[in-house]
Amino acid sequence: MFAAALRLQTVLDRSRAADFVAPLLLRLYLAPVFWMAGWNKLTGFDGTVQWFGNPDWGLGLPFPTVLAALATAAELGGAVLLLLGLAVRWVAIPLMVTMLVAVFAVHWDNGWLAIAEGSGLFATDRTMMATERLVQAKALLRQHGDYGYLTEHGSLVMLNNGIEFAATYLVMLLSLFFTGAGRYVSVDHWIRKRLMPVPQ
C-alpha cells in the first residue's frame, strides 16, 4: 500500500513539468477583468471621481481625483502586464490594494454573496429579502412582459454586491504574487532566464 502511494506521488510530482499552466490561466482570467474595470473608470472618469469622493452616495475617499486615476492606471496597466506576464509580482501589489479597497469600502456591508441567495451558509436577511423581491419581479415580468424571451439566455437574478468576486480576485492575485507569472509563456520568465541565470 505504501509503495503504491509512493508511485502515485511520483506520478503527481511529474505533473510539475506543466506547473506554468496555472499562473498562465490565472493571468488570462484576470487580465480582461481588470481591463474592463479600468476601462469603465476611464470612460466615465468624472463620474468615477464623484463616486470616489462623495460621502453620501459614494465612497467618501480623500483626494478622489488622485485615487481614481491611480485605480484606473493600476487596472488598465495591470491588465496589460498580466497578459504579457511582465512584472507580474510587482503589479499584483497595487491590484491587491484595489481589491482590498473594493472589499472594505464597497462590498463589505453586503456580506459574502455577489448574487443574492435566499438559503445556504452565506445567506443573510438582506439576501433573503432580495430573493423575495426577485419573486415579485418575475411575477410582474410574467404578467406584463415576454418572460421567455427575457430569460432565454439565463435566469434573472438579484445582485447582492457582496465581497465574493473581489475576494476571489484578491486570492488569485495573491497566488500570482507568490508564484510569479510562470515559466515559458511570460516575459518575466525570459527576462529572468537572460539576466539572472541559475548557476550550474
From TrEMBL:
It is found in: Cell membrane. The keyword Membrane applies. GO terms for cellular component: plasma membrane. It is a multi-pass membrane protein. InterPro entries: DoxX (IPR032808), DoxX-like_oxidoreductase (IPR051907). Pfam families: DoxX. It comes from the Bacteria. The chain crosses the membrane at residues 20-39, 59-83, 90-108, 166-186. Keywords: Cell membrane, Membrane, Transmembrane, Transmembrane helix. The keyword Cell membrane applies. Belongs to the DoxX family. This is Putative membrane protein YphA (DoxX/SURF4 family). It comes from Sinimarinibacterium flocculans.
